[in-house]
Amino acid sequence: MSQLGGVPVIILREGTESTKGKGARNKNIQAIRAVAEAVKTTLGPRGMDKMLVDSLGDVTITNDGATILDKLDVDHPGAKMAVEIAKNQDDQVGDGTTSAVIVAAQLLTVAEELMEQGVHPNTVANGFRKAMKKALTIIEEVAKPTENNPEILKHCAQTTMNSKGIAGKREFFAQIAVDVMMKVYEEGQTSYESVKNIVVLKKKGKSLQETEVISGIVLEKEPVHPLMPKSLSGGIKIATVAHAFEIKKTEFSSELRITDASQMQAFLDREEDVMKKYADKLKELGVQAVINQKGIEDTAAHYLNKAGIFAIKSVTKSDIEKLARATGATVVEDIFTMDAKDLGFAESLECKSVAGDDLVFISGCKDPKTLTVLIRGGTTSVIEEAERTLHDALSVVGTLLDKKLFVAGGGAIEMEVSARLLDFASEEKGKEQLAIESFARSLECIPIALAENAGIEPIDIIAKLRSKHAKPGSDGWGLEIYAGKPKNNYVGPNPVLEPAASIQTFIKSATELAVLILRIDEMIKARKSAGPPPGMGPGGPGGMPGMGMGGMPPGMM
Ligand SMILES: Nc1ncnc2c1ncn2[C@@H]1O[C@H](COP(=O)(O)OP(=O)(O)OP(=O)(O)O)[C@@H](O)[C@H]1O
Ligand SMILES: [Mg+2]
User: Fold this and answer.
1) Tell me: the pLDDT tens digits for 279-307?
2) E strand or H helix at 215, and its extent?
3) Which residue, 403, 441, 463, is CA-closest to 190?
4) pTM confidence score
5) Which candidate in 123, 125, 302, 553 could, as Cys together with 515 as Cys, close a disulfide (CB 3.0–4.6 Å)?
6) What is the dihedral of CA 420, 421, 422, 427, to 10 degrees?
7) By alpha-carbon position, which residue is closest to atom 8 of ligand 1?
8) For this structure, is 392 an active site residue?
9) Are residues 396 and 296 in the same domain?
10) Which CATH number covers residue 54?
């Protein structure tokens, strides 16, 4: 409600709630802190796992910040923003989601203190932004070039896996991640993007150690005819089609009147004829294997088998596209228009039964960069955590191949940036200086959380690290959790290394979230409507379209 010349002007629908200024900010800050508390205990190698049970009773056990936040049914708009930031972090670098949320919450905590001392939220926001920009350049200065050294890539992949449930197999999986990414690596191409093209297949049974990398594509299918060959080798021509090898059913039910047996035979012959034509056409092109996105009727399967052509049907669109890309084929919708240049090539094809499931391995593809990782493991939850972890490791290696810079982890980089930012703050004037200093100290929350989660008293550790980082040339000093004490994390048999870009991205994400929250001075919550207001379709938001703040629990706003 506004006052205009003493007359109240009602601009919002009746029942709309509004919280202003400090109140609005504090509620958001509380919500983000609550989200950070939920993931904080998972940070680092000694972090705990979370068991998430969804409304259907499905259980996920994970340590992955992005997964936890994704599965949390968060309702508060501030908390939702924190979840968004984490997702964004995951999309950009695939790691560092927990760190992003913890740092954002810490920045907001110190911002609250500054605002209580009378610093305006805009001044805090500006100081934070300045500090963030400086932090990004500091990281660039401190970071070392990877020179695509596989050992460095492997150590970085291991660091990311240290904190995951399958840490016991980290060396094995780190090696897989490096091997896979080195194979797909191409100078000038974004390796991080190519992580998406790596096929990951999960099969319960055996152990994680039995996980293998297959050069090519693996499809969970069996041939459409039992007598089709179980293996083909010596170079095979593959047709990828999206053409149903079936007689089209009419939309309306129709009746066929047959008056004598010869008519019946002619009708059946005609049907067979069509089916035979598919096989004839493929044979004419010299196709040895046809992979169909659509169905293949039994009669068609019979003719394909007679023609010596291997066939599988009902392959998903994404699988057939991957296969087409890998073999250099084109997915054709009408095989009668297909010609030789639409065909793909692979060295061999083999049907194998793995853990009771039929799989078709297509290897030695035209594009050698097509790879499938077949994850094995004793239980579904182990395999799923392995998949998430492998995704983080592949992303880390991809990020390193693209950006080529690494730093020391275990809180080392955060302590170094913190120390250099404090120097930078001393050159600044006014209240922004306070905000930059607070920003610098906030970064210490990472080594603090790492220590706390490992049951180590953080005060002594932070004091020691501060004194190390006050001197030049000690930027590698961080906490080494397995040793339980500070050390130079660049060196030793198990250095703790991370891509510089992951740290830069999480600092950026965290600052963006904090600044966004600081700049909000009013939250307007639309009234929940009983039904759609007049003029709006069913399910239309009540009250204030576009505000997106409905559904908050009472008392949170
Ligand atoms: N051996 C180690 N000693 C000390 N710190 C380590 C060690 N291995 C990893 N870390 C640290 O653990 C932190 C990463 O923890 P974690 O993977 O749980 O969180 P995240 O990467 O922020 O989020 P997520 O992986 O869930 O997206 C990094 O700061 C990393 O340097
Ligand atoms: Mg991680």
Assistant:
1) 999 999 999 999 999 999 898 999 999 99
2) strand 212-219
3) 403
4) 0.80
5) 125
6) 100
7) 159
8) yes
9) no
10) 1.10.560.10
